[in-house]
Amino acid sequence: MRLGKALGLLAATLFATHLQAQQAAMDPATRQLARDVFKQLIEIDSTDSIGSTTAVAEAMRKRLLDAGFPAADLIILGPNPRKGNLVARLRGRPGSTLKPVLLLCHTDVVEAKREDWTTDPFVFTEKDGFFYGRGTQDMKDSDAAMVMAFLRMKRENYVPDRDLILALTADEEGGKSNGVDWLLKNHPDLIQADFVINPDAGGLTTKNGKPILLGVEATEKLYADYHVTATNPGGHSSLPTHDNAIYHVADALSHLEKSPFPFELNEVTRAELTTRAALVEPQQAKDIRAILRTPPDLAAMQRLSASPVYNATMRTTCVATMMSAGHAPNALPGRAQANINCRILPGHSQEEVRQDLIRIFADPTLTVDYVDNSGTVLGKGSDRAAAPPPPLNEAVFKPLRETVKKMWPGLTILPEMETGASDSIYTIAAGMPSYGFNGMAIEEGDERAHGRDERLGIESYYAGVEFQYLYLKAMTSSRQK
Ligand SMILES: [Zn+2]
Fold it and tell me: Is the whole-model pTM more than 0.70?
């Protein structure tokens, strides 16, 4: 997933015209190949309903084989024939003491109906300066860019200073066979790495065509669902009492709405807010600086909390998302239940938040259960706290600054906490710090991931392909300079 965080960024005055995205410096043959790979990926249906990520894996495996990768370094694995994952390895310098880097890309896409779209979502279409098709933003663009970088490095006989592992995986968007989870459980050695780059998060935002910032996801919130349930003997509705299951749950939800979780910043959100303060309008900037102080300014905190994005950056959030209750119009409800969806700040556990909810509801007759991803009601949540944010590793950020300087001089690099979730949640939990970014420019307001008429600017695509290639080389050539 890729979540645009529209925060009313200031454009114009702050950004000089030299920030225009550079025309990708790519020879015509490489450009044609980049287009072919992208087209092929878009036109292989990899939806959960009828598509196949194995077909994607096979197609990319063939391209890498043809480029000279040994078959032993191109492995397709998965829990069933339709949900294959490709793990490709570009070998680093023999004897290197550096641990591999994992490049994580999901190949599945969200469903798309022909009748909802202007063009056929599974036909790669070039129109008005854009490439259209399901996955052009999320994330077959970056799948193609990673494969292109591997093809080019191989063609040049480039030897990185450590192994690069590319995992093209299934079921990030949904489905029951998440490829990263499956690989970590079944073949952890294949993808064990020092850290992870996941282009499914972060990314380059433009305003009026000018790049204004490159977001780097450096940590993620933890997803959790809870059921709050009231049960009651029920009875005839002509003889109501106050002990009503629906009222119990309604009261609990009303408490929840009025009880925000505590304000808390971490290394990543502090860096994110500090950078944002330089990009937004003056009152917002003033408020941001005021909450960064110790102790934070309460009035500023309240003003920023009115924005869902700032609110979600500053605290764990929990919100009622579903409800069911009662069994007949003329009977007192025997049961009422609501689903509470929480996004938990790094450093806190699912069980800790369940206890918080119990305290907020303050009604001992209610049951509060944790519900896992498959919908199983587990009662207690895990005590394992979501990993605290990793350090902003220079092995990641130094080559990033260098590459950005080459392609978009002066562009702001913004570390971010993802308030949604991506596959990085699995690699973070497995102890591998994970960073999300890519060089595919998307205009502010034109985020169409999961939506209709998904598209990516043609030149944005080629620049993103070039960025990925330059970045991987910059990241793995430190000792050869
Ligand atoms: Zn995605």
Answer: yes
